[in-house]
């Protein structure tokens, strides 16, 4: 593998996206600048996550450190970094963050045409114990950058220009689609650059893994219950599926993209809309799953066709291998 270790032609994420965008050269520079600010945010979070225990970045917000200074929690800090990087890029007019109740309207002097929806640090229950967490983002275009309104962001996911995530796991992995397939990059810490390592990701058509919080089974609807039952006791006599559930959407989706299978956060009696947020969790992941050849379904419709009413709306979601999602669609159709 000498050739690998001495690789001299490095496909960085910037170079890759510039190549991809060359046809619409008009917005090429703007999109590249926007993306490099998202990547900067991810590198910051990656470095903060890696030293979280040392720097006392974990624990409750408002906790004070030994010097009596107030410590910012990792998710609060991550949010600030993304907001500042995106505003100062001069390429955005509106931002929606899972950490901020209201949409953020960028000051006119820094206006650009893009709208970014994001969850700066997802997987809150896994932060303090060192399990993989991630950042999720989606990008829309404003109709008029100087008069952006909430309507510009309350758009179905099929209107997204790009979507992606960064996973802070055993390595730092950035996965993105600009509507032309899905590509994965791994951070080379010695270079500080994301290098193409997973070109053209395709989710296997069938899967051997299902991923769900089974602790909620008592409150599931009939199609979900039947689907999971069939994972364990397949009616056709095939081998039962394996259960994998990390509880960090980014990590569970990353595994699903690479190995295939089904990830779901269904509706239940207590949460009729499930848990996951439409704009910055369900849409970006559904976009990636479709771009990788899989499907995403809400229990009623194609996830990307959903029109959110409010920026923090939630929706049930089933996403993964094409055939797996086809199966759950059949179960819902049979239940109507
Ligand atoms: P968070 O935004 O509070 O981190 O919640 C989102 C996370 C997802 O990453 C994950 O898929 C889901 O919550 C897990 O929820 P649960 O613990 O109910 O299984
Ligand atoms: Mg979240």
From TrEMBL:
The molecular function terms in GO held by this entry are:
fructose 1,6-bisphosphate 1-phosphatase activity; metal ion binding
Domain Fructose-1-6-bisphosphatase class I N-terminal: from-to ranges = 11-199
Q: Which cofactor does it need?
A: Mg(2+)
Which Gene3D superfamilies does its entry note?
3.40.190.80, Fructose-1,6-Bisphosphatase, subunit A, domain 1 (3.30.540.10)
Q: Name all Fructose-1-6-bisphosphatase class 1 C-terminal domain ranges.
A: 203-332
Tell me the Gene Ontology biological-process terms attached to this UniProt entry.
fructose 1,6-bisphosphate metabolic process; fructose 6-phosphate metabolic process; fructose metabolic process; gluconeogenesis; photosynthesis; sucrose biosynthetic process
Entry's localization field? Cytoplasm
The UniProt similarity line reads: Belongs to the FBPase class 1 family.
Protein name (record): Fructose-1,6-bisphosphatase, cytosolic
């Amino acid at each position: 593998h000498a050739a690998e270790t001495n690789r001299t032609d490095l496909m960085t994420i910037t170079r890759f996206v510039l190549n991809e965008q060359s046809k619409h050269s008009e917005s090429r520079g703007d999109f590249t600048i926007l993306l490099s600010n998202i990547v900067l945010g991810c590198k910051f979070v990656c470095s903060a996550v890696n030293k979280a225990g040392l720097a006392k970045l974990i624990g409750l917000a408002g906790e004070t450190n030994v010097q009596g200074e107030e410590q910012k929690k990792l998710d609060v800090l991550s949010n600030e970094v993304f907001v500042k990087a995106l505003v100062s890029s001069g390429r955005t007019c509106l931002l929606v963050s899972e950490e901020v109740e209201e949409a953020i309207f960028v000051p006119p002097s820094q206006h650009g045409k893009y709208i970014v929806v994001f969850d700066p640090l997802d997987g809150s229950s896994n932060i303090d114990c060192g399990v993989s967490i991630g950042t999720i983002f989606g990008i829309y275009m404003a109709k008029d950058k100087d008069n952006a309104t909430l309507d510009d962001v309350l758009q179905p996911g099929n209107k997204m220009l790009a979507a992606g995530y960064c996973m802070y796991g055993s390595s730092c992995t950035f996965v993105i689609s600009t509507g032309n397939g899905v590509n994965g990059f791994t951070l080379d810490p010695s270079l500080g650059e994301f290098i193409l390592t997973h070109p053209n990701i395709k989710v296997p058509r069938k899967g051997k893994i299902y991923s769900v919080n089974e602790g909620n089974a008592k409150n599931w609807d009939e199609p979900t219950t039947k689907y999971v039952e069939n994972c364990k006791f397949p009616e056709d006599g095939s081998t039962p599926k394996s259960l994998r559930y990390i509880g960090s959407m980014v990590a569970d989706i990353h595994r699903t993209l690479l190995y295939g299978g089904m990830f779901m956060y269904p509706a239940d009696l207590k949460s009729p809309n499930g848990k996951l947020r439409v704009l910055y969790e369900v849409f970006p992941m559904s976009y990636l799953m479709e771009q990788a050849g899989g499907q995403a379904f809400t229990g009623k419709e194609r996830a990307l066709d959903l029109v959110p009413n409010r920026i923090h709306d939630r929706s049930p979601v089933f996403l993964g291998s094409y055939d797996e999602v086809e199966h759950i669609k059949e179960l819902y159709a049979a239940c109507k």
